[in-house]
Design goal:
single chain; about 450 residues
Length: about 450
């Protein structure tokens, strides 16, 4: 076989360097190895043609495995703030009216983090964006522990704001699961990432009591104990992503898309059908579904542990209820993903509003000392949220092109975080002014606003 001349070798070296740059990962050598050794260097086809890219389906399987591992860890991290955040604030401030402030703060912090993670992901890929977000959440957890030791409410509020980065990152990870997925399987890819949060999310609240006991042995207040777990969990999630999220799903998806465009230019019949392009209407509907479900879910969820505590139950009971709630938020994800892909985004989005209404009615009607009925109400609350998140995410991903996908997704998640912050803050004020049943019933009725929005969009289509 004729040896390549120096000019050809130089051009090949440049080509390989560009592949490494486009994928941005250490295992670019695996992609380069897939290139035919006898490349025709006179070809004008772009480097990234589909013949020159490793199997995206194989890369997707690896990416989902890594995302699942990080979501299991981060699930335990986000559960800490949900379980004891309101109780810690109530204990330090001596006021129920401000018990919803922690939820408002870490969801407000997640809004800022969603912008940052989205922009980093847009510029450098999902791996650095997600890893940075989880590391920031770990720093916030350490700040909460320090604030509890010093009995410093101001530091507590600042730390909870920073801690919210973990919540935003946990949600942003679902988009990474869909980057390489074909349109007909996007909802299922999203659901695979979401369901992984269940393991950590269910274990975390049930560890509230033992981590509190462990914290006391270290001279840390009992209610700050779960944040020890969250700090370690977020740090490990960041490490897993930084080391093993390779190839980067967003960067590889862009490379594949560019290759398909090049193939479509020379071989029009080989191109895939374009994604659904519903434009701004699709973005608005997807955002509305997720924003409204987040608002209702956070408002009711935030005050449920306080409601249980005020009726004589301890952190073990509230931890169990929140564990069931978080399980319902994530565990049904595979079924939800299949339903969304099989029956359509609109039908499941509408089902979200109806399920949240049922949750609000049951929470309002349940006796305050009935842990079982409140657990069932919060299970329905989590299920309704899951329906809204999976269907809304699929709508957004279908609508937004790859060139601006991460940035737009980050901005949508800002709206979700703001809705959560509003729900968390308003929930404490409303319960102090009225009652927990009034809050739950109001949230359920508000969720019905999804139905006309979905119906109007479906009619326009």
């Amino acid at each position: 076989m004729r040896a390549a001349d120096p000019a050809e070798r130089a051009r090949r070296g440049t080509e390989d360097s560009m592949i490494r740059l486009s994928v941005g990962l250490e295992d670019a050598d695996d992609l380069i190895a897939d290139l035919p050794s006898g490349r025709d260097m006179t070809s004008t086809a772009p480097i990234g043609t589909t013949a020159h890219i490793s199997d995206p389906a194989q890369a997707q399987r690896r990416i989902l495995r890594v995302l699942v591992a990080s979501q299991v860890l981060s699930g335990a991290g986000l559960a800490a703030g949900v379980t004891v955040g309101a109780l810690l604030a109530q204990d330090m401030l001596g006021s129920t009216s401000l018990a919803g402030l922690p939820s408002a703060l870490f969801t407000a912090g997640s809004a800022l983090a969603a912008v940052a993670v989205g922009r980093i992901s847009q510029a450098r890929g999902r791996r650095p964006g997600l890893a940075t977000g989880y590391l920031t959440g770990a720093i916030g957890s350490a700040g909460v522990i320090t604030a509890a030791v010093l009995d410093n409410p101001v530091l507590l509020f600042i730390a909870l704001f920073v801690y919210g980065a973990g919540t935003a990152t946990n949600l942003q990870a679902r988009y990474a699961g869909a980057d390489l997925a074909p349109p007909g399987h996007r909802a299922r890819a999203v659901s695979t990432v979401l369901v992984a949060t269940t393991l950590g999310g269910v274990a975390g609240p049930n560890l509230a009591a033992p981590t509190g006991t462990f914290a006391e042995t270290l001279g840390i207040p009992n209610l700050a104990g779960p944040f020890i777990l969250s700090g370690a969990a977020y740090a490990l999630a960041a490490l897993v992503l930084a080391l093993w999220l390779r190839p980067d799903p967003l960067l590889l998806a862009r490379t594949v898309a560019q290759a398909k465009e090049a193939d479509a230019t020379t071989h029009p019949a080989a191109s895939d059908a374009a994604d659904t392009t519903d434009g701004r209407g699709g973005v608005v509907l997807g955002a509305l579904v997720m924003v409204l479900t987040q608002l209702v879910m956070v408002a009711i969820m935030t005050m449920t542990p306080v409601h249980i505590h005020d009726h004589g139950h301890g952190t073990a009971a509230s931890g169990l209820v929140i564990a069931i709630h978080i399980g319902a938020m994530y565990l049904p994800s595979p079924l939800t993903g299949w339903l969304v892909d099989r029956y359509g985004r609109m039908k499941i989005a509408a089902a979200s509003g109806i399920t949240l209404l049922a949750a609000g009615i049951l929470a309002a009607a349940a006796p305050g000392d009935s842990v079982g009925l409140l657990a069932l109400a919060l299970a329905l609350l989590g299920l309704g949220w899951n329906f809204g998140l999976v269907s809304g995410t699929a709508i957004i991903t279908d609508t937004v092109p790859l060139a601006t996908r991460a940035k737009t997704q980050g901005l949508v998640d800002v709206s979700i975080a703001i809705a959560g912050a509003t729900g968390g803050m308003a929930s404490g004020i409303m319960v102090a002014a009225t009652s927990y049943p009034a809050l739950a019933l109001t949230g359920g009725i508000l969720s019905l606003a999804l139905l006309p929005a979905v119906a109007a969009t479906a009619y326009r289509r």
